[in-house]
UniProtKB/TrEMBL annotation:
Family of the protein in this entry: Belongs to the bacterial ribosomal protein bL21 family.
Encoding gene (name): rplU
Region (Disordered): 45-70
UniProt protein name: Large ribosomal subunit protein bL21
PANTHER family referenced in this protein's UniProt entry, alphabetically: 50S RIBOSOMAL PROTEIN L21 (PTHR21349), LARGE RIBOSOMAL SUBUNIT PROTEIN BL21M (PTHR21349:SF0)
A single cellular component GO annotation: ribonucleoprotein complex
Compositional bias per record (Low complexity), positions renumbered to this chain: 45-65
GO molecular function: rRNA binding; structural constituent of ribosome
Its biological purpose: This protein binds to 23S rRNA in the presence of protein L20.
Amino acid sequence: MSFAIIKTGGKQYKVAEGDKILVEKLDGEAGQEFDFEEVLMVSNGKSNEGKNSSADSSSSPQASSLQVGQPLVGGAKVHARILEQGKEKKKIVFKYSSKTRYKKKKGHKQPFTKVEILKISA
């Protein structure tokens, strides 16, 4: 199974084709397609699972090829589509100091973008 590790919004995500993930807010509208340019690692091919030993899988033509960037993989892109823009549930921030009549209540809704991964190209 091929996968990639991308960097967006100061975080890193492991993605595969067909995945739907929530990332920090990106500019764009629902249905718009774009590319993630910051790709840290790409793996193409089959994973080495099951009964085969590591000596057998290294010589097989279906062994996975792993490209690790330093820090980015050159020419690699992850093509994605924006599914929706939204906000998470409200988180309450409450500050309180005893004996001084100090109270502050504040709410925060973190914006997010739901993205579907369409294609990984190395």
